[in-house]
Amino acid sequence: MYLKSLTLKGFKSFASSTTLQLEPGITCIVGPNGSGKSNVVDALAWVMGEQGAKSLRGGKMEDVIFAGTSGRPPLGRAEVLLTIDNADGALPIEYAEVTISRTMFRSGGSEYAINGSSCRLLDVQELLSDSGIGREMHVIVGQGQLDTILHATPEDRRGFIEEAAGVLKHRKRKEKALRKLDSTEGNLTRLGDLLTEIRRQLKPLGRQAEVARRAATVQADVRDARARLLADDLVNARTALQQELADESILVERREQVEAEIARAREAEAALEAALREDLPALSRAQETWFALSGLRERLRGTQSLAAERVRNAAGTADVEEARSGRDPDQLEAEAEQVREQEQRIAAEVEESRVALEQAVAARRAAEDAAAEEERRIAGLQRAAADRREGLARLHGQVNALKSRAAAADEEVGRLRLAREEAVARAERAQRDFTSLETKVAGLDAGEEGLDAEHEAAVAALDDIEERLAKARDEALQADRDRTALAARKDALEMGLNRKDGVGALLAASDSVSGLLGSVAALLTVRSGFETAVAQALGSAADAVAVADADAAVRAIGHLKDDDLGRAGMLLGGGPVSDRDWPGLPAHAAYAVDVVECPDTLRPALTRMLFKVAVVDDLDAARGLVAGLPDVTAVTREGDVLGAHFAAGGSSSQPSLIEVQAAVDEAAGQLAEAVAASERLGFDMSRLEAERLEAQKRADVALAKLHESDATLAAVAEELGQYGSQARAARGEADRLAQAIEKAEEARAQAVTGLAELETRLTSAEDAPEEEPDTAARERLVEEARTARQAEMDTRLALRTSEERSRALHGRADAMVRAARAEREARARAAERRERLIREGRAAEAVGVAVGHVLARLEVSVHRASAARTAVEQARAGREQELLAVRSELRRLDKEHDELVNSVHRDEMARTQQRMRIEQLEERALEELGLDADALVADYGPDQPVPFSGELEEGQEPPGPAPFVREEQQKRLRAAERALAMLGRVNPLALEEYSAMEERHKFLTEQLEDLKKTRKDLLDIVREVDQRVEQVFTEAYADVSKAFDATFARLFPGGEGRLVLTDPDDMLSTGVEVEARPPGKKVKRLSLLSGGERSLVAVAFLVALFKARPSPFYILDEVEAALDDTNLGRLLEIYEELRESSQLLVITHQKRTMEVGDALYGVTMRGDGVSAVISQRLRDQDGGAAERARSGRGRASAATEERSRDARVETQTG
Q1: C-alpha angle with apex 378: 372 to 380, nearest 5 degrees?
Q2: pLDDT above 90 (res 112)
Q3: Of 855, 854, 877, 863, the residue nearest 290 (C-alpha)
Q4: What is the per-residue pLDDT across 988-1019, written as a single tens digit (0 to 9) for each?
Q5: Residue 1059 · residue 1041 · CB < 8 Å
Q6: Of 1127, 1130, 1189, 1201, residue with least CA distance to 1164
Q7: How would you write 183-220 as a 3-class SS string?
Q8: d(C-alpha 1195, C-alpha 705), whole Å
Q9: Fewest C-beta atoms under 10 Å: which of 394, 636, 828, 1109?
Q10: What is the DSSP letter of 1203?
Q11: Residue closest to 692 by CA, chosen among 453, 480, 472
């Protein structure tokens, strides 16, 4: 068996998939510091089940996943696959090659697999345990582990030896057996408790079962009586239902007769309605005929009136044409010729007027030009005078404006100064209000802090009270539970005191039988811890009844015999007091009579019953006491009795009455304490509730005050803001007014300066003379121009008048010609219309004659149609009267039918109720008796005889069955119910429960025996495992100690070293100490050795393990780093020896170590922070030449240090 290959995917610095093909012999793994060599060792330990993150040089297990570099992102999982060659069958699995894989995810999940099949960590550990690989992983020696071995405790060193010896599987077997043993012990305890409880419950349950058996007999009588009464009720109900069904047939017959009459009436009604429907078309036709003839008559009368109107129109046409007169067309044409001549004359006048107008326009333009020129000259002179006057006016205006401006500036300055004073006053007033409010706010803030403190204190007090109240509620709830449990326990224990034999009958008859004092168990008070001993010492007397004297005992026995109540033991009081001359007892013993308190009347009898009975602790003390005092009877606290001639004892889980009574008294005391505690807690809860309400009120009041204070502060703050705004606004306004005052004063100064200059200019202008121009020529020229314009206007009016006359005459001649033509056409159309009206008049006269004849005949037809319509209406009215009579009869029959239907419905409802009662009786029979109706009537009906069910004397023959009498059965039912009530509460399941509990008791007893047997078997297994572990460890320790001596002598020539057991007498738990004395030194403590010596001692211990119990492979991580050349050579010789039986994976920096290797792996790390592997085989598998090995070693070293391309690269990157 050896490691065949190792594949790393995302494990630590191996980001890419990297596979190391391993071979038997020594494989050296080399590389610079930090390249990832030790990660290979960590991967081997991790895949074989290492669970400690610190052992893998990490903080948490997720650190084994590649964390990423600057050039590569982190990975999500790490996976390591280890392939083991199992051709020799060293691993307990049917595969020649085994691949163990482990996958770790970022989420923290971890998966194991063996040959691709998912498995548990335990499966991997068990698979490797026979190869010496266990929890300690002693085959993997990592960096710093040598020092750990040296500083390990003796027990830890023992763990290394046990792991190498293969004790792990025995340890696991023992741990599993111990866990099962603990579980078995717990099951035994629970079974013992269950059996004790079942034994305690069996006796009262047996008594309940007896009561249930007696109750079953009484219940049978109750059931029979109820069944017969129920069957009688069912038969009576069925008989009544049949009678009601017979009465129903009469009503049904009458209803059928009424329904037949209704059918006949409906037929008559239908016939009449059909006749009426048949008359309806004839009536409609008659009415339609009459209406049509009436309409035709009205139309003919209209036609007659229209014809008469046209005759009148034709007669009046001639008169209208004669009265009409128009102008003669020839006259109109002559007038048109005269108008054309007049139009030509007016056109010549228009042309003359247009020439005169042109001349007048030219004269008007010449006059206007001369007047305009003179006007411009005069205007120039006037403009110069006006400009001088305007300059004077402007100077006057400017002077007046400057005076007004100066006066306004003075007024503005005064107004602004007054406004500024008012603004300053407002600002000062607002500032004063602001300051006073700030003082008020400071006081409110102080009050606010006090309110906050008060509210917080109130809330804290409320929380404290609520916490105390919740705690009190929990305690009260627990007290209620305890009280309920104690009350139930007391009731259950008191049920155990209830006696159903003669003792119970006597105790129940204490009123009728005098002299009864009560049960002995209730009258005695036994010191705690002595109940069982006193009960066994008293024997049956512990269950007896205490009586006042012998006469009372005789009366009690007579009472038991007379009522056949059974037997009972009695303890007689009032007996003579005997002298107590009993021997003295040792300190550990006491007389039973001294640990019992009882009434004085019973003391003599109790002393007699406990004559010389002593209570001791155990059987050994009892045996010693009886041996020393033969006439004394010893009773142990557990109830075992030992005397000189008699002994009794054993195990019993059934408590005596005295023990039960003591338990009842104890439960009563505890119940009283629980009730008192519950009441006290109730009072506390009431008090705390009142305090909580008061604290809630205080908190609410404080909160209300706080809210009110907040509202006041908000209002004051708002008012404060208003005053601040007012002050700021007033100060701003004062500043603006000051600036305005400065500007107004500057403007006033400028106005005063300009005023003096303007006044000087005004005085100079007023002193200059003023001249007016001559306007006579201008007025003359203006008059001439006006005359020219008037002449032009007159000429223009004459032209317009001539043009209007011309336009008025233009077209008049054409209009007259058209009028003559239109007059001729109108006279032609009038002649044609007159002829047409004459023709229409003649035709209308003929139509009028014909219409008169038709109207005479039509009046006869209308009269006949009216008579036919009247006849049809009279026939229809007769049928309607008959239909009303039939419908009245039909309503009467419907009413009678409804009454019959209602009666039948009422009867049907009554029958339905009767059926429902029958169904209820049948359901009662089925639910209460489990019988259907027919079977109930057949078996328990009134016709069935009633068998005898009373009690018979011995030898008396039972009488025969009697006929059914309802009163007797009712009396029988009442008597049975009274008997059932006298039995009290009956547990109907007592028989089944008693039987089930007996079966359960038997089953649990068998289970108890099985568990005891299982416990014995487990103890045997633990004992066997301990023997096996002791044997294996002893043999392994001997071999390791012998190998350590030899190895130490080789590594330390002349030195002395040995392994020492800390407790040689206990090979199961002894530790292992290491003593080492190098040559030339007297020290034996490892802490006084140098670093190299300590490493060499640790190597010696590990090599001793390797040789004593070889493992298929070992992984060594720089174990020779602290050794010098000499010691390194000695260690390499040991490597050569270990190569023969095991596979070695050595991580080293030493060239001498590389020289002894069979294969060399170089681990490098490129600039991307990812480890890569190159390999070189130094020897053939059959053993190559030394020269070729040295050559290979040189090449591998160069490849490792310089990354030479000559090395054969076997890196597989996925």
Answers
A1: 100
A2: yes
A3: 863
A4: 777 777 788 888 888 888 888 888 888 888 88
A5: yes
A6: 1201
A7: HHHHHHHHHHHHHHHHHHHHHHHHHHHHHHHHHHHHHH
A8: 94
A9: 828
A10: -
A11: 472
Residues 543 and 522: their CA atoms lie apart, in Å, by: 10
Are β-strands 1143-1147 and 26-30 bridged in parallel, bridged antiparallel, or unpaired?
parallel
Give the confidence band of 113 by pLDDT, cuts at 50, 70, 90.
very high
Q: Which of 160, 157, 163, 142 is nearest to 1086 (CA)?
A: 157
What b-and-e string marks burial along 170-183, b requiring 16 or more CB atoms within 10 Å of the CB? bbbbbeebeebbee
The answer, yes or no, to whether residue 82 has pLDDT greater than 70, is yes
Look at 1207 and 310; give whichever has higher pLDDT: 310
Q: What is the pLDDT of residue 489?
A: 64
**Count of CB atoms situated within 10 Å of the CB of 912:** 10
Work out the number of other CB atoms within 10 angstroms of the CB of residue 610: 22
Residue type, 240: A
The 10 Å Cβ neighbour count of residue 373 is 12
853-879 residue pLDDT tens: 777 777 888 788 777 778 777 777 777
Token pair 């100490």 in the structure block, residue: 1073
881 CB burial (10 A radius; 0-12, 13-18, 19+): exposed
Name the residue among 43, 54, 116 with its Cα closest to residue 80.
43
Least confident residue range of 32-41, 431-440, 553-562, 892-901: 431-440
Q: Euclidean distance between the first and final Cα of the chain, in Å? A: 28
Distance CA 264, CA 270 (A): 10
Q: What is the pLDDT of residues 501-525, one digit of tens each?
A: 567 777 767 667 777 787 777 788 8
Amino acid 327 reads: R
pTM: predicted TM-score of the whole model, two decimal places: 0.38
* 448 vs 210, residue with greater confidence: 210
Quote the CA–CA distance of 608 and 1046 in Å, as a whole number: 85
DSSP strand E in 510-573: where? Answer: 516-519, 525-526, 545-547, 570-572
Q: Write the single-letter amino acid at 414.
A: G
Percent helix, strand, coil in the chain, to 5, is 70, 10, 20
Q: pLDDT tier at 149 (50, 70, 90 boundaries)?
A: confident
| 361, containing H or E segment | helix 329-497
Contacts 24+ apart (CB under 8 A), 705-710: 705/451, 705/454, 705/455, 706/448, 706/451, 706/452, 706/455, 709/444, 709/447, 709/448, 709/451, 710/448
Strand-pairing partners, residue 642, are: 634, 647
User: CA–CA separation, 32 vs 29, rounded Å?
Assistant: 11
Contacts of 334 (CB under 8 A, 6+ apart): none
C-alpha 1033/C-alpha 164 separation (Å) is: 10
| Number of C-beta neighbours around residue 1102 at 10 A | 23
Beta bridge partners of residue 83, listed in sequence order:
5, 99
Tokens at 533, concatenated:
């001993």
How many whole angstroms separate alpha carbon 44 and alpha carbon 1111? 15
Residue tagged 């706010």 (tokens): 441
Residues 193-204 have a mean pLDDT of 80
897 vs 1065: CA distance, rounded Å: 120
Question: What average pLDDT does the structure give for the chain?
Answer: 77
From 438, 430, 432, select the one nearest 727 (Cα to Cα). Answer: 430
943-975: string of b/e by CB count within 10 Å (b at 16+)? Answer: eeebeeeeeeeeeeeeeeeeebeeeebeebbee
Burial annotation 924-937 (CB, 10 A radius, 16+ → b, else e): ebeeebebebeebb
pLDDT tier at 119, thresholds 50, 70, 90: very high
